[in-house]
Design goal:
This protein has 303 residues and is an alpha/beta fold. Helix content is 39%, strand content 15%.
Length: 303
């Protein structure tokens, strides 16, 4: 039996780790200057967080984004699962959701659709460069507002993903959700959030942020089918309080998005989150539904 030289194995492991760290750092010099602007008081780099794949060489790279006024770290449970599938992930924290509680409230009250578009474009450039250098696909995984911003960017030609996974994408909202537009004259007015404290980034959501969301929706017209019709999984709870599931299905059908697959999600009996829109982590949907979601995502990305 041949002895294994543990010294060499350790050297190889450390070398791979150093190369990965170098690559992530080196990408900064490859991103256009437009991405160097201050975001939430700390620059783009404080708004991005890398989570490495469990394997030395990733099978894919993913850009992951959160929902409106959602604490970005709520996406970490899904990110860990993606890492275990061999996906290197960059989580992008949108302006108004950063780590500085004072700065994020100030920027949240003055945000607009173009600001989120520019920030997401920068996140895309970082992840696209990593995927191309590594020679693996780039995928997009996002919840609610994050899904909307990403699809808007793809629709406008600012991004291209090999596959997408959209959780309750805010592409079509119920008519009553548009009622907040009556308050558009007061962009700094903050409406309290009904979400659990652990789920929200801020106490409430300013009218400016809602206006940005609606502007992103309007930017989807007309849909560029040739750009957005990539392999896409869409998870939606039929009782979603924000996203209109029926309108979402109609949009997919009307635009002939035959590479989009809608998955109707029903929360398991052990789900601790009764708010149907929230489906981005296990306790929100229950163990059985969560496991089924992960299995569908894995097959979608790698089979």
């Amino acid at each position: 039996m041949t002895d294994v030289d543990l010294t060499n194995l350790t050297f190889v492991h450390d070398t791979l780790a150093m190369m990965t760290a170098w690559l992530v750092g080196a990408l900064s010099v490859l991103v256009p200057g437009e991405c160097e602007s201050s975001l939430d008081g700390g620059g783009l780099w404080q708004a991005t967080h890398w989570f490495e794949a469990s394997s030395p060489t990733p099978r894919a790279v993913a850009l992951v984004m959160h929902g409106l006024n959602q604490e970005p770290s709520r996406m970490n449970e899904l990110i860990v699962e993606l890492n275990n599938m061999g996906v290197a992930v960059m989580r992008l924290d949108l302006i108004g959701h950063g780590s500085d509680p004072i700065s994020r409230q100030q920027t949240f009250a003055s945000v607009d659709a173009d600001t989120w578009r520019r920030q997401t474009r920068c996140g895309y450039l970082l992840t696209r460069e990593r995927a191309d250098v590594t020679g693996v696909p780039l995928v997009f995984v996002a919840f609610s507002l994050g899904a909307l911003v990403g699809v808007d960017l793809v629709n406008g030609g600012g991004a291209r993903f090999e596959a997408m996974v959209l959780l309750a994408p805010a592409l079509c909202v119920h008519w009553y959700a548009s009622g907040v537009r009556l308050l558009s004259a007061w962009p700094g007015l903050v409406l309290p959030s009904s979400a659990p404290e652990a789920d929200r980034a801020n106490f409430g959501t300013p009218i400016a942020a809602y206006e940005a969301l609606f502007a992103l929706q309007e930017g989807l017209e007309p849909l560029a089918r040739d750009r957005i019709n990539v392999p896409t999984l869409v998870f939606i709870d039929e009782d979603d309080e924000l996203v209109d599931a029926a309108a979402l299905r109609a949009m997919i059908a009307d635009y002939g998005l035959n590479r989009w697959q809608g998955i109707s999600l029903r929360k398991s009996i052990d789900a601790e989150q009764t708010y149907h829109h929230v489906i981005a982590y296990q306790r929100a949907v229950g163990q059985q539904s969560w496991s089924a979601m992960l299995e569908r995502i894995k097959r979608h990305l790698f089979e």
